[in-house]
Every structure is written in C-alpha cells, then in structure tokens.
Amino acid sequence: MDSSAPRLGNAILTPPEPIILQQRPVKIQSRDVTVHYGAKQAIHDLDIDIPDRAVSAFIGPSGCGKSTFLRCINRMNDTIPIARVGGKIEIEGQDIYDKNLDVVQLRARVGMVFQKPNPFPKSIFENVAYGPRIHGLASSKNDLDEIVVTSLKRAGLFEEVKDRLAAPGTGLSGGQQQRLCIARAISVNPEIILMDEPCSALDPIATARIEELIDDLRQNFCIVIVTHSMQQAARVSQLTAFFHLGNLVEVGDTDAIFTNPQEKRTQDYITGRFG
Amino acid sequence: MTDMTAPASSRVLDVTSDRARARIRARYRKEARFRAYGLIAIGFAALFLVVLLTDILSKGIPAFFVTQATVPVTIEAADVDPNGNRKVSEIAKGDFAAALRKSLVAMFPYANDRASRRQLMGLFSSVAASELRDAVIADPNLIGKQVTLPLLLSDDADLFFKGGITEVQVQAAKGVATPSGTEGNVEIVSSGPDFAVELGDVKRQISAQLRSVRRDAEANNLLKARYQAQVQDLTAQLAQARAAGDKDAAPALEQALAKATSDLESVAANGTRLEERMLQLKTKASQPAAAEALDPTLPSLLVRINGGIVKATEVAGDRIKGTVIAPLSSAAPAAAGSWSTENILTPESSRRLGDREVVWLEDLAAKDMITNAFNWSFFTTGDSREPELAGVLGGIVGSALTLLVTLGICLPVGVAAAIYLEEFAPKNRFTELIEVNINNLAAVPSIVFGLLGLAIFLNFFGMPRSSALVGGLVLALLVLPTIIIAARAALKAVPPSIREAALGVGASHQQAVFHHVLPLAMPGIMTGTIIGMAHALGETAPLLLIGMVAFIVDIPHGIEDAATVLPVQIFLWSDLPEVAFRAKTSAAIIVLLLFLFVMNGAAIMLRKHFERRW
To answer: What is the mean pLDDT of residues B21-32?
Structure first.
C-alpha cells in the first residue's frame, strides 16, 4: 500500500515541482475566523493564507474543523441555522461576509465538490448546463453546448459520456459521478474550487483519476481540498494545513510539512500515532 | 493457558450444544410466528375485502340491467294526432299512454275495468309512453301502424323478473280437473290429490298460529291471575279502612279498586277471545282433510285451466273453490298435464305486485316479450323518485365539479404553504403555532368543516346553496391539512445533498427549491394530494350541511348549479323505502369505487410521468 500509493502520486506529479508558494498571489485570506455551532466552538481564531493556482490540502483527525472552515469559504455554513461565523475571510481582498455581498454570486465564484457524488437526478447534459443557465453564461444553445462539452472535457469525462449526454447522471459509476460533479463545478468558471473529501467514497483507480484531474485543474483554479488521506495530500497539494481540535496547528509547503513538521502534533498525526 | 480455559470456555460461542440448538429453534419459531401473524392479518383484510366486494357486486350488478317488454302497440291517429296533420308539436301532445293502454287491453281483454287498466299500466314505467312518443316523433309514418318497441317496465315489474318479489312454483297436475263454471266463483274438482301439498302448507300454518295463540293465552292467564290478586287485596284493604273509619284512605282505595276491576275485565275478555280462537284453530288442525280458506297472509294458489286462471280461496285435498281471474274458455274437464297449479310463495299481503299482476308478467314472459338490456340510462340521467329512472350522472358530474374546485384550491395553496413552511419560514414561535394548528386541523371532524362552510360561505358570503362551488371550498378546507403535511414530508425526504449541490453551483435558495427539491418531492406531493382527494371524494357529512343533500334531478352544468355528489347520492338512495333503490345504492357504490380507481390510476400515471423526469 505504502509503496504503491505514492507511485500513483509520483506518476501524476513528476517532475516534482519546486515549491515557491511565497511567490504565488494569495487568493483567500482568513483572519481570526471562529465558528460556533450553537454553544460549541468548532474553530478557534484561524489565520491562513491560501495561494492561487495551487492545491491546498486540509488534513487532520475527524471533527477537527477542516470541513467547517472549508464550508466558510463559500458560506455554505449559512444554511445551518445554528452556525455562527466570526472573524474575516477575504477573497482577493473582498470580505465575503460583507453584508452587501451577494452570497449566490459568491458561490458561483467558489465552486464546491462534495464528499459523496451528488449529481442532480437529471441528464448528464443538464447537470453541467444547470450552472451556466442560471448564471446566464451561455448566450445561445450552441454556446451552452460548448460550455458543457468543454467542462466535461476538462473534467476528463467527455470521452466516456459523449454518446449518452441525455442519460441520467445518476446512472454513472461513482468515479464518473464525482467527475461529473467537478465538471458541474467548473462549468460556471469559478475562481476557487472547494473539495470536501472528494475521493472518500471512491475506489483507488477512480481516486487516481480524480487526483490526476485535480492536478490538471491547478493550472487554472485555486483548489482547496479536505482529505483524510495523507498520501493524497502529499500527492496532490502544494500547501498543507494541519487542523486539530478546531485549531490550525501548522501550515506550510506540503514537502516541508511531511518531511520536517515543526509541531509535535503534526508529526504524530502524519506518522500515524493518532488520528 | 490451562487456568484460562475454565472461564474462557464459557465465553466461547457454542454452536453445537443442545442449548445452542434450542436457541436456534426458538429463534426460528419466533420468526415463523411473526410471519404467521402477518399472514393472518393480511388474510383477514383480504377476507373482509372479498366479502365487501362480493356483497356490493352481487347486490349492485342487477341494477346495471333493466327489464323491457316488447309489446306490440298500435299507434292510432285518434290518440296521438287527432287533427291528422302530423305536426311534431301536435304529436308531442298526443296521448301515447292511451295507445299503450289499448294495446295492453287487447292482449288481456278480461282486464277491461278501470282498476285493472290502471294495474296493467302500472307494470310499465312512466317513461314508456315517452319512449313511444320519441319513436313516433322520429318517424311520423308510424302513425296508424303497429310498433314493437322495447318499453321500460316499472321498478316492481323489473324486480319481479330479477327474482326480488316472489318465487313462483308451477306444478303440472296429475288428475283430471272439472271446473264448475267459466267465470265468477267456481269450484274445481280434481280426480287426483293435486292440492294436498297446499292444504298441508295451510295446516302447518294453522298449527304455527295455534302455538302462538296458545302462548298468548298463557301469558294472558298469568296477567289475569295478577289482576285477580290485586282486586282481592284492594277489596280487603278497603274493608279494613272502612272498619277503621279511615275516611281519607277510602276514596283512593275505591278508585284503585275500580281501575283494577276494569283491567281484570278486559284481560278476562281477551282471554275468552283467545280461548275461542284456540278452539277454532284446534278444530282445524285436528281435521287434516277438511277444507281451509286461504287469505292474503298465506301463499297464493292459482290454477291455470282451459286457457283461464282461477285464484283459490278455499282449498281441500282434491278440490278448490276460487274466483276466476282470467275467464276459462269452457267448463269441460281438463286432462292431466293440460292444466297446472301455481304457487306464489310470498303472501299477497307482503308483496308489491298482486296475483293478477304476477300473472300478466308471466304471460308477457311466456310470449317472449320480456328482454333484459343494459341500463344505459343509469349513467345518463340524474336522480329520480322512480327507481327505474334514477341515474348517477348527477352524482358523477357533481363529484367531478366539486373535486375540481377542491383540487384547484388545495393543490396550489397546500403546496405553497408546505414549501414556505418547510423551506423558507423562520423557525419561531409563530410558525410553530401555525404548524401545530395545521396538524390539529387534520384531526378535526369533517362535520365541523360543514358547519364552518354553512356559516361562512353560505351565510356570510351568500354563495349558492347546494352548489359544487361551496362543496369544493368546504372539502378544500378539509383536505388542506392532509396535503400540507404530505407535501412537507415529501420535501423533507429530498436528500440534502441535492440542495447542497444546487447551492454549491451558485443557485439561490429559491432556485434550489424550485429547480431541484420540488421536482423530486413532486411524486410524494402527488400521492398526498391523491389521498386527500380520495378522502374528499368519499366525504359526505360536511356536504349534508351545505345543502348538497337535496333531491336534485338536473345534471349540474357549472360549479354554481345545485348539485349532489356520489356519496351523498348513495346516502339518499340507501334511505329510500323502494326495494329497487337497494340495488341502485350498491350500483352507485360500485360507480364510486370505479371513480376512485380511475382517479388513483390517473394519479399513478401522473406520478410515473414526474418520476421519469427525475
């Protein structure tokens, strides 16, 4: 397992890219972010800078707040009535919790892929076309067709489904469904894609394809991924943040975190001593 | 290791010991028992369903057929077109009943007195004349000719052919019979014991009467003894009071004594009468061969002989005395086999057709004039006081209009309320109060909604009474809670991942609900709506209060017309005294069930349609 999994990752990531995060522009900036679920505090004063056009991975044991923070970035926590978010999250300097900011527009800029593939119970075409349609991205039917085809191609799904775009999206395999969800997310051309454990429900081969895809998408998007698999974090991300008990314990270049963690807790976690 | 075995072995899962096997057997038994309970429950339900359906079908199916008589009727110009100009307007005023009456009298020439003619005409429905009229208006050339048209029989005649009036037993006679005359009161003497069976029946009836009279007499004697004791007691008390000079008590006692004495007298008189009757009956019962008189409380005995019919008034083993219903052609002796006896088992006093009417109907049947046809008019006419004319179209149209109004209000309001409460309403005291009230409304007795409708829609808003509009509004109030609760449950059942997917791609909350959640919840909402509609279709009580229980003959043409609905029609018919309405009631129930099946079928199709769209 240990020997085979990194090999998959190596195949994708060769040649290993030199990490030059400091040179990349900061896309998402978080300052003193706190999240409460009712009386329970899920995140304590979280500061993090997430670079553009790179993959940032959030790792940590279950319940550490990494998914909660992820869902703050596109304000999905708004749908939970008891959730309260404090502090400041800025995307390119714009406060996303600003009262004047339209949350729907924010979510169009910040796409999301969920843990369980959740295609709409509609056709493959409709799944991808839905976003562009509600945001008025396509000026004509041909335009829409093009967006759908491009999105599917970028998600690496087009070749597999080009003959059955009218077939239900729910009829695809799990990995295909997840790629369909990615196609759906990128169809509105967002700046950021949030991925909440996108491979946890998939088999290793489907996982490898998704990881490959994530690596491709990095060229154009700022990607934030929550994962339970440290190998996955090591394989796909350039920046890794380790969360524990609602605190951001350590953040840094992925290579640095995995080879030379500064914190004892990080080291314990990545070497499998707890978690 | 060895010291571990003792405590550890008791923890090992044992699968081979007797206890383990017993445990498994017990588990199997438990499962088998549970399965049996389930099967018994389903069996019970199926049994009741079968019983219900069999009962309704067996009672209702005859009502889907009518009996017609194809009597040749000569249309005389004098009756239907006295001016001879063959104008439709004049033919329409023609006396077609007279034409029918004349033709019937021609068939039964002996039934030429007024009462007989009325009885003859009574065998036919009141629309028989209209049927003739319609035929002649359609083709005026029929005037002066004989038409043979199937004419609708009255409900009683119809019921007779369906076996609902009486059973008739015909027996070929064995002896040679000699009638004493051809008309009036005659005596028929048979050379064989052709009437012995009837006589036996009568004697048995007499024995039964005797037993009942004897019981009455015994009860009477007990009563008499009690009054006697009372009289003695009061006499003694009065004597005592007089001896003691008690002036106050005496008058009251005297009065009581007088009353008791008069009671005793009347009881004694009754006793004497019963004794006499008992003696009479005893005499009759003790002479098994003596002739007995027949009365209308006994089955009728008719004798068909020499082309005529004699109704027996007195029967002995080998002879009867009787009155002639249809004149005999001669008084010559009739050979065995050429004459017959006929028993009409239901006594004349407890059936709606007299002996003569039964005979006429039998004669019509013997001439092959009686036909059975499908009762199309049951589906094309409204209610009527005449059972053979009553139809369910009024009820069907009324139900359809009422349900349309109900659906038109319920579906949008119910679904909108459900969506708002489930998806958009802030969770606070106020919305909680509304929710509790909606849930409570679903449990309010339907008659309360009827009262509400009466007070608000009729009295306050002054809407038309008995109309499908008001009925639909009341039923809408009734089923609204059901639909809201069902729709909310359906919305809640949509997986949150779909909502998240929509929000994640940048849909607003409302877009997520209307584009994704609602379509997925639609099948569930449809199911809830249909359950509500089926509930509304069968609802009777609230509609009674808003006047839909009225007797309405016309088919409603709009939601403001006076209307009735199927269940109310069933309720009305079930209450009517005419026997023929019993079958109509069951038939209307069948129609209601079919209406329900069609509605549910449509609902399933709709649901399938929505489901195909995912």
So the answer is: 94
